[in-house]
Amino acid sequence: xxxxxxxxxxxxxxxxxxxxxxxxxxxxxxxxxxxxxxxxxxxxxxxxxxxxxxxxxxxxxxxxxxxxxxxxxxxxxxxxxxxxxxxxxxxxxxxxxxxxxxxxxxxxxxxxxxxxxxxxxxxxxxxxxxxxxxxxxxxxxxxxxxxxxxx
Length: 151
Description:
By secondary structure, the chain is α/β, with parallel strands linked by helices. 42% of the residues lie in helices and 15% in strands.
């Protein structure tokens, strides 16, 4: 079962994500991937080096996070186009787009998308039996929210 996996990393965590992707390349190559900015170029290079065919790598590259990539990814989540998010964010460094990062995390939770913010959680997700099986998250019914009276 192919999944669409979003891979994102802040600058100080790109090395960690690169190591994780290198270690898990065999599992990742079988899936579609979406990456923000320079993370996408880095992941593509790693996976092409690890791939036997060198050309069957499916990576959609969005804009850099601060330039709208986080919002593009959030829209893909709302459209049901993302199955898993691996987002190695840097909790020690303020980001110029912190509000976008918070919005991305919020939309992932709202749509019940599995999200790993560190290597340990990413390891648990990729080693889960559900990673290779079909899985549809249960999304809360928000129809009451949409039909509420504001006036």
